[in-house]
Specification:
The complex is a heterodimer of chains A (1120) and B (299). Chain A is an all-alpha fold and 1120 residues long. The N terminus and C terminus of chain A are likely disordered. Chain A is elongated, with a radius of gyration of 38 Å. Chain A has a two-stranded antiparallel sheet. Helices cover 41% and strands 8% of the residues of chain B. Chain B has a five-stranded antiparallel beta sheet. Chain B is globular and about 75 Å long. The two termini of chain B are 40 Å apart. The chains are: A mainly alpha (1120), B alpha+beta (299). Chains A and B meet through helix 16, helix 18, helix 21, helix 23 and helix 24 of A and helix 1, helix 3 and helix 4 of B.
């Protein structure tokens, strides 16, 4: 019936009323209305005499259709009426207003039981009027009021009923129209508010009606969302609307919880088709309707945040954070099974890629970077998962690829840069030259030099310089095809290789330029000077203080409260130092557990108050995951997957390789440097210790003096022993290196120490961590702990101690190791001079290091020692080789000359230290206040660690993992920040100990490859063949792309059958034995990665300076 | 990374898997077993640890030999980038009155022009060419040859070559840079040195400056005039990037001049179509994420 109205309306419109006298129209209208009124009154209970019945009989069909007809005509006339003079109402409209035509018609509908048909009729009537009327109708209350009544009576329409769907559709369409009208003419808005008030209904009915459709699928939902966006736009100019929306409606909560609801309907596990799968591409999610719907809603949130009033934006972001991310996504990221966690990670990655609005992205990122779940930093959990060998690891890698691709300063800061800012991973010379360019491509040379010996490129290296020196700049290809006529097949490949390298250069250029530009918005250049590490500290302390009230249960406030609270220290300690070595002794550990162990206590910047119960057990979800993972792998990979081991291995490999390559190095022999620096850090630890002691004293000052003295003594003793312990470890390490044998226990021990260091580094910003704050508390509160500690001679960080409070089992193992360790320490005490001597020996840059015997070395050691002492202003008396004596001396020196002694004399004045690298970077820090405490032990962060650890496994990794890892690394290397660039592309010096550079890992991988090639003689040939094939295929694909000029996603490789016509000249895919497949491809990838890195390094050296200036002075005014 | 086309990464991974299965057969089943050899306990540590002693003897000789191979192959790239880096440095120095441009045909040849703004050689405009040895940066210092031999004690009256070597007796990589040579080329026209001259006549005249001041001056003026009179000549080298002068042509030069003055040093000019915008909510100087003040509160 109604369709006929609309149809007729449309048809009639074609009959133009032009030229028809308005008077006539008016007369017709009045007549029609008179007829209608007649019928209406006949059925009106008020007017009818028979008002007795409450319900009149049904309206006869003919009468209904008569009204229908009249109304149609009337509406037509109304629509066609031109506005009167000077914007006045036309006669018909005036009549409508005066007579309340619309109201009466609405009542008439109501009278007829207001079925869905009636509603549709009315809704369409208004739709038509709104869309086609030539004069504004909504300004008139007699029009608007019935409209509002109609809308509110349709409000519940969606709740079932056969016509529900269509009523909804029409309702939303009408609402959409109304919003459009509002957007065009905001003055109507006031009327909307007033009308609503009259009715006593919720203000701004229009808006409230739209909310339920927010998450609806299909075109209806889309219309509703469009309409809402129109209102959002309105809110930017009209604060009243904004306030109304935030204060009186549930819009924001509905949006956010809607996300939660939609999220819960997503499949908890994805069916993964292949091992290679690592992220949800469009082709994947388009097949999952629930996911599509979620993404739609997410997109809508983006739009609202984009166009809405700041108050709406703020509220919505808050709800998304607290209503979706924290309560829904965070637990989902910690589910029990690997599949679920993997799926959630993939979702998170997809969401990040889908969110375009910076503010919403910020919310997501602050969730990822700062949120803590079960006292664990979410970021740490995610980072540690990268190292899992399952698909979860791959998916996590993909997530980080996305994060890094955002060029977000906050992300990079939290993941990597904050570990690099203290510059402890650099030696002095490097730190000074951080901003310098590598003018002679020396990094590139080093990288390419790692290419395995039998790779095709090296074989085919027949060109001499002169052939290449004259190149055509405008041409990407150094020689035209014709030039290669005389070349053999291998040389042909070589040509390809060069072309291929040019492409890497080009990619690097484009990538670096893009990074540079993206990073223009960053707050600082990260060049080793700005931002300074100190400021970080301050900032963190400030922040810490802000947070302190909230977490006093976990961390007592030693800075502000004169006497530390004495409650519950064991638990607190247990938590804080769980990382120390708490989990060390347990039999089964997985990587993420370890990372968890030392990371969770780490991050200072938790945005949320930590929950009070600081439990010692690993959180439930981690335990669960551990269990399921163990079941999965049946304990097969448990131990060596710990990347602390890898770290050790890097060291060994790197040092071995340096020996190997020494002939090629122009720089001073580097094998010895780690040891030197190790000692330095040892010296440096004395400093730390001293300061720590100071602090304790200050703190204890409030107490009785005797107590203070006792404290002091104890601490000194401890410090001494701690130092001894560390030295012991160093010696051990040294020995091991020399012997090339790794004792399992030694590794343990080593790890323990490493881990301690890691923890310290991690915790640098938590003031209470100053392990000394801790020590004082322990002493005063817990006597038995104190004794125990003495007995155990724990290190300065006292982690062992806290450990005891963790669990008994751990405690036991720990005791064992400690005891064991003690033994070894004492037994090795006499070797200490050797070690020391070696260090000193190393100051002399020209002697190669050889394993030294104690006797040979003693003298020179002593003399060096004496000179050092003299340089410190202390006359050395005869020093025996009694190491304790020596140590006391050093300690006394450290304590006594605190104010006067500047340790930098080591590097400046001492005649011994000619080499600038010798007493490196640490010396200035020794004098600077607490910097070394926090940054003393170089640590480049967990993310770099896991990435490098993954890279180390290149040969064993599946191909997609390798592509992701190398992709992420090369993306990182393209970042313009000198800190990052220098760290990743640095090849020319040895980093301080504990710092593991990309280059070291690459060296180690190369050793693996060469090793494998020696074992499998056919391996090189296979690699060459595979390489030739892949290169040729790559070229053919590129050519094809060029020919087709397609801008399609070039990351999707082309199906082989599609490329057949063009890849005819490509050598056939070599028959690679399946078991070697990964290794063969990984080897090719390795060499290609070297090229990529070399290209990036080269391009970095020629970045136009204007770019860099721009970055350093982002606020410079731009001349017009 | 342009390696990606090597392997299908995303959408057609399912197909890849089947490829692998065809080829590997039984092996595939092994891999599916929970023991996962690739991360198995025994593999990882064994390789590097054992590798240490074994590969040692073989390596050094091999690597040394191979080093040459790689270097030879990538040598052109190293050279090119070293020179480009040098060029970047030259630009960075903003040497007054000196302009250089690498030639189209070879990066080892740079065209340059120097404008002398005061002193004896005032108003001189001297074109020159810089020749860089092809074993740069390990070779001799670059040569500077003036297109027209300027009358100067250090400029060879026949070849026009400037005596650069006296300033750079030994070219040291990392210490010496081409901009220093250019700077030197500029300095010689302001501070005249007559020791061991290439042009004895000029040196002698200059040495007797007091007496023959007019003679020396007039020689210089003549030489400057001569050079300037040849300014609009075709460049000596037939190279698209050779520097050539032409008289002022408003149709061309006005617009160029206009652009020069209004040029905005904006990154958009460098890379059009590559608009990536990064994100940052870090307060300048801070190292805390989301430390900017205008961050909307989240709770």
């Amino acid at each position: 019936m109604m369709a006929s109205v609309v149809a007729k309306g449309n048809r009639k419109k074609s009959l133009s009323l032009k030229g028809v006298d308005p008077e006539t129209c008016m007369i017709v209208f009045r007549n029609h209305w008179a007829q209608v009124v007649k019928i209406l009154e006949k059925h009106d209970p008020v007017h009818s005499r028979s008002g007795v019945y409450l319900r009149l009989g049904p309206v006869p069909g003919d009468e209904a259709s008569a009204v229908q007809n009249y109304v149609e005509h009337m509406l037509f006339l109304l629509m066609e009426e031109e506005p009167g003079q000077g914007g006045a109402m036309g006669a018909i409209l005036e009549f409508v207003v005066v007579e309340g035509v619309m109201e009466r018609l609405f009542l008439w509908s109501l009278r007829r039981h207001f079925t869905d048909d009636m509603k549709l009729e009315q809704l369409r009537m208004y739709q038509m009027l709104l869309s086609q009327a030539r004069q504004p109708l909504l300004h008139h209350k007699p029009v608007l009021r019935p409209l509002m009544m109609l809308l509110s009576s349709c409000a519940g329409a969606g709740s079932g009923g056969r016509g529900g769907g269509s009523v909804e559709a029409e309702l939303v369409l009408l609402l959409n129209q109304l919003c459009g009208a509002l957007a065009k003419d905001p003055s109507v808005l006031e009327l909307f508010f007033h009308t609503s008030e009259d009715q006593g209904a919720a203000n701004f009915l229009l808006f409230s009606l739209l909310i339920p459709f927010t998450h609806q699928e299909g075109s209806v939902g889309q219309q509703a969302r469009d309409a809402l966006l129109l209102i959002m736009q309105l809110s930017t100019y009209n604060p009243r609307v904004a306030t109304h929306i935030t204060d009186n409606t549930y819009f924001c909560p509905v949006l956010a919880t809607g996300l939660s609801g939609l999220y819960s309907s997503l499949p908890a596990k994805l069916q993964v088709y292949s091992e290679d799968w690592h992220c949800l591409e469009r082709a994947d999610w388009i097949q999952v309707p629930a996911l599509v719907q979620f993404l739609n809603s997410l997109q809508f949130c983006c739009s609202v945040i984009k166009v809405g009033h700041p108050s709406i934006r703020g509220q919505l972001l808050g709800y998304i954070y607290n209503g979706f991310l924290v309560p829904v996504l965070a637990p989902a990221l910690h589910k029990c099974t690997l599949e679920e966690v993997m799926t959630t990670t993939a979702y998170l990655d997809l969401f990040l890629r889908s969110v375009s609005e910076p503010a919403l992205l910020q919310t997501f990122l602050s969730f990822i970077l700062l949120h803590t779940h079960d006292n664990v930093q979410l970021l740490d959990t995610l980072v540690s998962r990268v190292n899992t060998p399952f698909q979860l690891g791959t998916v996590s890698l993909a997530l980080f690829r996305t994060l890094i691709g955002l060029f977000c300063e906050d992300v990079m800061l939290q993941l990597i840069l904050r570990y690099l800012i203290p510059c402890t991973h650099l030696c002095v010379r490097e730190r000074r030259s951080l901003k310098d360019r590598d003018a002679y491509s020396s990094s590139a040379v080093k990288f390419l030099f790692l290419t395995p010996s039998w790779c095709p490129l090296r074989l085919g290296a027949v060109h001499t310089h002169t052939q290449h020196i004259h190149w055509a700049m405008g041409n990407n290809v150094p020689m035209s095809e014709g030039d290669s006529v005389g070349y053999s097949r291998i040389c042909r490949t070589d040509l390809l290789m060069n072309v291929n390298y040019l492409q890497y250069l080009w990619d690097a250029r484009v990538g670096i330029a893009a990074s540079l530009q993206a990073c223009l918005v960053w707050s600082g250049p990260y060049d080793g000077e700005k931002p300074a590490a100190r400021e970080e500290e301050d900032g963190e302390e400030e922040r810490e203080q802000e947070l302190e009230e909230e977490k006093t249960d976990q961390t007592f406030n030693w800075t502000s409260s004169p006497s530390p609270p004495l409650t519950s220290p064991p638990v607190t300690m247990g938590n804080q130092h769980r990382g120390g070595d708490g989990g060390r002794g347990s039999v089964v550990e997985l990587e993420w557990d370890d990372s968890y162990e030392w990371d969770d206590s780490a991050l200072p910047s938790s945005s949320l108050p930590l929950t009070p119960p600081v439990h010692i057990e690993t959180p439930q979800h981690i335990q669960e995951m551990r269990r399921s993972a163990i079941m999965l792998i049946q304990g097969s990979y448990v131990e060596e997957s710990d990347f602390q081991d890898d770290v050790l291995v890097y060291n060994l490999i790197a040092q071995k390789d340096e020996v190997e390559y020494k002939p090629d190095r122009r720089t001073t022999p580097q094998t010895r440097k780690p040891v030197v620096s190790q000692t330095t850090s040892l010296v440096h630890r004395y400093g730390t210790l001293r300061r720590e002691k100071e602090r304790v004293v200050v703190e204890e000052g409030v107490r009785e003096e005797e107590g203070v003295r006792e404290e002091e003594r104890v601490i000194v003793e401890e410090g001494e022993e701690g130092v001894r312990e560390e030295e012991g470890v160093i010696v051990e390490e040294e020995l091991r290196e020399e012997e090339g044998v790794i004792v399992e226990e030694g590794v343990r021990e080593e790890e323990g120490v490493r881990e301690e260091e890691g923890v310290r580094e991690e915790k640098r910003s938590q003031p209470q961590l100053l392990s000394n704050g801790l020590s004082c508390e322990d002493h005063t509160v817990n006597e038995e702990v104190d004794d125990d500690r003495k007995r155990k001679s724990s290190g300065p960080h006292l982690d062992h101690n806290c450990n005891r409070t963790v669990t008994t089992t751990v405690n036991q193992t720990n005791d064992l190791t400690t005891a064991d360790h003690q033994e070894r320490t004492t037994s090795e005490n006499h070797t200490h001079p050797v070690e020391k001597q070696q260090d000193c020996n190393k100051t002399d840059a020209d002697h190669p290091v050889s394993p030294v015997t104690t006797s040979a070395v003693d003298d020179s050691f002593l003399s060096q020692y004496r000179e050092l002492m003299r340089s410190l202003g202390v006359e050395p008396d005869d020093v025996t080789d009694d190491i304790t004596e020596f140590r006391k001396r050093v300690l006394a020196l450290a304590q006594g000359g605190e104010e006067e002694v500047d340790f930098s004399v080591f590097s400046t004045d001492s005649p011994e230290s000619k080499d600038a690298d010798l007493e490196p970077e640490n010396s200035p820090e020794l004098t600077s206040n607490s910097q070394d405490r926090k940054h003393g032990i170089p640590f480049t962060g967990p993310f770099i660690s896991v990435l490098l650890s993954r890279l180390e496994n290149l040969l064993e990794n599946p191909i997609p993992v390798n592509l992701l890892v190398t992709g992420i690394l090369s993306q990182l290397a393209k970042y313009p920040q000198p800190l990052l660039r220098a760290f990743l592309l640095n090849t020319h010096t040895d980093p301080p100990p504990n710092v593991h550079t990309l280059y070291q890992v690459l060296v180690s991988v190369r050793v693996q490859i060469e090793q494998y090639a020696t074992d499998q003689t056919e391996f090189p040939a296979t690699v060459r063949e595979a390489w030739r094939y892949l290169l040729a295929r790559d070229q053919a694909l590129k050519l094809r792309e060029l020919l087709e000029d397609s801008h399609s996603d070039n990351r999707k490789s082309v199906l082989p059958n599609g490329t057949q016509h063009i890849t005819q000249n490509v050598p056939p895919c070599p028959n690679i034995p399946p078991q070697a497949r990964n290794r063969v491809f990984a080897t090719v990838l390795y060499a290609e990665f070297l090229k990529e890195l070399a290209a990036i390094a080269q391009e970095h050296s020629i970045v136009p300076d204007s770019f860099i200036e721009e970055i350093n002075t982002p606020d410079s005014p731009i001349e017009e | 990374m342009n390696l990606n086309p090597f392997w299908s990464m995303s959408t057609n991974t399912g197909r890849k898997r089947s490829d692998g299965e065809e080829q590997s057969g039984a092996q595939q089943q092994q891999r599916a077993s929970p023991a996962r050899p690739s991360f198995g306990k025994k593999q990882l540590p064994s390789i590097p640890k054992n590798a240490v002693p074994i590969t040692k003897p073989a390596s050094p000789a091999a690597t040394a030999q191979l080093a040459n191979g790689t270097h030879a192959s990538y040598g052109p790239f190293y050279l090119e980038y070293s020179l480009l880096a040098e060029f970047t440095l030259v630009i960075k120095q903003k040497l007054p009155g000196i302009y250089v441009q690498p030639s189209y045909k070879s990066a080892l040849m740079w065209f340059g022009v120097i404008f002398i703004r005061h002193g004896l050689y005032q108003d001189g405009v001297f074109k020159f060419t810089v020749y860089i040895p092809d074993n740069y940066p390990d070779g001799e210092c670059p040569r500077v040859v003036f297109d027209i031999p300027v009358f100067h004690p250090l400029v060879d009256p026949v070849s026009g070559e400037l005596d650069v070597r006296r300033a750079f007796t030994k070219w040291r990589r990392n210490h010496n840079h081409i901009w220093q040579v250019l700077m030197y080329a500029r300095t010689v026209f302001y501070k005249i040195n007559t020791m061991e001259p290439l042009n004895p006549e000029a040196a002698v005249l200059f040495f007797r400056y007091d007496k023959d001041v007019q003679l020396f001056k007039s020689k210089v003026v003549d030489s400057v005039k001569l050079c300037n009179s040849h300014l609009f000549d075709q460049p000596k080298m037939d190279d698209p990037y050779a520097i050539s002068f032409s008289s002022w042509n408003p149709a061309i030069h006005d617009e160029a001049k206009e652009r020069m003055f209004t040029h905005k040093r904006r990154p958009e000019d460098h890379q059009k179509g590559l608009q990536v915008s990064g994100l940052s909510w870090v307060k300048p100087g801070s190292t805390q994420p989301f430390s900017k003040d205008d961050n909307p509160p989240l709770s």
